Amino acid sequence: MSGDPFSLAGKTILITGASSGIGREVAVSCAKRGATAVISGRNRERLDETLKALDAGGHRAYAADLTELEQIHALADASGPIDGLFFSAGIALIAPFRMINQEHVRKLMRIDFEAPILLTQRLLKQRQIRDGGSIVFNTALAARTAPQGTAIYAAAKAGLTAAARSLALEVARARIRVTCLQLGYVRTALLDGLAKSGMNVTELANLAPLGMGEPLDVANAAIFLLSDASRWVSRTELTADGGLILRMP
What we know:
CATH class: Alpha Beta
Radius of gyration: 17 Å
Low-confidence stretches: none
Order of helices and strands: EHEHEHEHEHHEHHHE
Oligomer: single chain
CATH architecture: 3-Layer(aba) Sandwich
Strand order of the largest sheet: 3-2-1-4-5-6-7
Largest sheet: 7 strands, parallel
């Protein structure tokens, strides 16, 4: 461990969903802390914008659609050995339970649950996560609170949380840590999309004593979980929600 336990110098971190929002901010913050960032996203143009925003250091970008197994495998194989993994790729869709359908269920599960599980599996199978590494799943407060209209989204995030706890036991021998970053409302394009679909995001965010979060708030929490500062933290969730869980109906 270096003198600064929060340093990522010498570490290679893979970040999915890095073409915008939280993923982009995590990638930028990791690079500032000395990491070599391997970034992924579906939009090549926006991914290249993220790459240009990173501090110099041999960073790499791979465009990939993580709903396709072949592209999941290609991304894992191209990443090379890594020390950390942060999942930001995901979607949020809301619908009353009586109006959900098979497409709604499959889309959310494929992107929010299946994709991170299968990418992690491939990396572990190929022995590409170094001993002492860190796997961080980006989940959501909905996994605990399940607000109205979020049944399948909440189920996907809750399933990911449960899978992470089991995985943590399997990789502990290699001192690999597995945690979930459980988020409240963060100011991103995804949140704007929820607002347009009818969710009163502002009212819900105002329930948090510290208000709505920013991508940088998430990135700072991610740095802790990815760095050696969290070397004794695993099989748990770090809630970053501005205190919202205390007042969520």
